[in-house]
Amino acid sequence: MVDIPQIASSVASLKQSLEAHRYICSDQIATAVYLAYHLRKPVLIEGPPGVGKTELAKTTAAMFELPLIRLQCYEGLDEAKALYEWKYGKQLLYTQVLKQTLDEVLQGARGFAESVRRLHEFGDIFFSEEFLEARPLLKALRSEHGCVLLIDEVDKSDHEFESLLLEILSDYQVSIPEIGTVKATREPPLVFLTSNNTREISDALKRRCLHLYIPFPDIGLEQRIIHARVPEMPAQLQTQLVNFIHALRDLDLKKVPSISETIDWARTLLLLHADRLDPELVKNTLNVILKFQEDIDSVQPEIGMLAKKATEGR
Known about the structure:
By secondary structure, the protein is α/β, with parallel strands linked by helices.
């Protein structure tokens, strides 16, 4: 077992531990995780796709040796998929058994009122813990020794789902009409929400969270990320690759390369035994970092010039 209080004793210690798990980050990111742990506040992480928002939650779970419970958001997500639902098949089976033993249940009952009362006693069992199917949010609250709860791409869900989250994010509890209030057991979950800014997140949700924006890294930080993720890559090629990626991000593209695509390209060049950014090699692997054909078509005439600048360090 890791010593979580020791890891989270300072921002510097936490940052060092994240980097030991190959998550290279800024002081701002390490500070946000530090505050989230000590203040027990959820963190809303915003930024472009592929900059390490989801990876931060996954690395934090690995660093603290806590289970990761992940809820992937999408349009139409509701409480039955996110919070809980009833085991309808088990309820139906129980109903059949009750029908078969109805005479035993009602044996000795005097009059209609007492018969109804006895049936109501059995009816309450249908909506008890025994028939409750916990989904990610409820599982996180019930996690006995704590966990990391990742609510991924919350901006893809509906506004109604955001309302469902408010009680959980503020009080680490949820109200189930048939059972009552379920509160976090012992350690409340460490909650990370991510957003790619496809829509505006409500003020009510933002008020309950610490805010962290992760931009694209500068050249120095991205080189450290590549070194951590692809340590076998020669330093010279690593520098050229990062320079080329940053030049692409300055162009008017439909989707600029993210950090995850930089890492994929680094692994691709390593697999192809490249020792420098050759224009022909760049042309043949451009589809690894650019995801739209119109972007590839617009960049191809500039490959020679971009590769030359990258190799010359300009």
